[in-house]
Amino acid sequence: MLALFPAILAVCAWATADPVRIAKGREIYGMACAACHGQDGAGNPEWESAVRPVSFADCGTTAEPAEQWETIAKKGGPARGLSSVMPAFGEAFTPDEIGAVVAYLRTFCPPADEYPPGDLNFRRLLVTGKAFPEEEVVLSVAHRPHRSARQTELEVSYEKRIGPRFQYEITLPFRTQASGGDGRGLADVELEGKQVLHFDLRRLEILSAGLGVALPTGSESKSLGAGTVTFSPFLAYGKGWGGTLLQAKVEARLPVDRDRADREVEYAVALSRALGPRTIAWTPAVELAGAWNERTKRHEYGAVIEVSKPLNKLGHVIASIGVAVPIRPREERYRIQAYLLWDFGDGPFWQGW
């Protein structure tokens, strides 16, 4: 029963639990689950095993999509690269019985309704920001391969969730290769806070707002920074229709010193499609991203064509690669973009292979 708790997110749909269903789930839990997981859901201290059962009172597990845990419940831990101590229950319970059990398991975490469910944790894109609060480390790279304008930029981002709906992020950008007079080194460091404003599991939608701050850590003379603090309020939105996902973000760039940098509005909107279970599927996507400069009235935009895929069975180590193609201005050159992501909230990097 280790894997069943987060499946509450889909089966119960964050609705008020049916007392009859809860009673049925309590009965099944007592017969099939309590021996390992304990009557309080925190794990039976008398159960001898090298694997510690998950605590059903830990609301952090709500970040997992229901498909992940339903698969483990039906096929056992090895189906997602986890321990065989977690057996398969696909033939032991009917869908209604599993629904009753997970409805009961949800009662171990009283504030679960405050947490956005993992079914709204859509796949990360190369450009468009996510609305879901995450716990991730992301290494991103953008490379222009053309000789006259060859350039390679790296970003290391650390994202940490606090409480049900808040996330902070620290991004360290570097330019490791440059031509045409630009320099190499650390660019402007960015700090960001994000708060979920609304989510609805039945409609598969989530809305967040946040504020970013870019610090003038990069050299202006090397074209690595703006030379001024820049504030960036933003909105991020996600919407799903089965395996088809819409994500969008709009952000204002507001420099403190307008003699050094212009105000801009940046936006990105994307459509993606999971070709199978979202946790482990290949997911192609198309993004449209652009920026409008308030002073020059110049509007630049382009498209990003990409595909992402988890590298392991657990699905918490993901790689993505794509090509950004400029539409306006046309004289710009294409660039290759990619990321490697580790969702450390799901476990150690080496787990789940």
- Overall shape: it is elongated
| Integer average pLDDT | 87
Task: Provide the β-strand percentage band.
Answer: 35-45%
Listing every helix as H and every strand as E from the N terminus to the C terminus, the arrangement reads HHHHHEEEEEEEEEEEEE
How much helicity do the residues have? 10-25%
First-last Cα distance: 21 Å
How many E strands? 13
CATH homology superfamily of the largest domain: monomeric porin ompg
Rg estimate, integer Å: 23 Å
Return the domain count: 2
Q: Supply the CATH architecture of the largest domain.
A: Beta Barrel
Helix- and strand-based class?
Answer: mainly beta
What does this structure look like?
It is a single chain. By secondary structure, the chain is mostly beta strands. It has 2 domains: 5-114, Cytochrome c-like domain (Cytochrome Bc1 Complex, Chain D, domain 2); 118-346, Porin (Beta Barrel). The chain is 12% helix and 38% strand. The protein has 5 helices and 13 strands. The protein has helices at residues 8-11, 19-32, 34-37, 66-75, 95-105, and strands at 136-144, 151-162, 166-177, 185-186, 190-200, 205-214, 230-241, 244-255, 264-273, 283-293, 299-310, 317-328, 335-342.
